[in-house]
UniProtKB/TrEMBL annotation:
Domain DUF4440: 15-112
Pfam families: DUF4440
Name of this chain's protein: Nuclear transport factor 2 family protein
Amino acid sequence: MTDVRTTAVESAIERELRLLQPEVRSSPELLAELLHPQFREFGASGRDWDRTSIIEALIAGEEPGPRPAVVSRMEGVQLAPDVVHLTFDTENNGSRAHRSSLWRRTDDGWQMYFHQGTPFSPEGE
């Protein structure tokens, strides 16, 4: 993927990074602001999440995603006027995952519509 830093891509990146912050991940209001009502995730754990289940799990501290995580290789491309695709890697306590997110522009701003995490080992890159 070729990284093209449009304003839309920059907005999606900023919001993606916000989602990794502990204060956001512990706030149902902030999570609801960033996650699209039809949000879906295929987690690195293999679990299938919807918006309600991911918010509940994050608030309960079940930690289905990286927190805190080291983010690398963040790239983005604007696929349409209202759609941005981001890819990046995370490392959290030795666990690594390739990640992919789709962000949609809505009346409430950019919201994550879909996310997928796929575990990998450094040897398998």
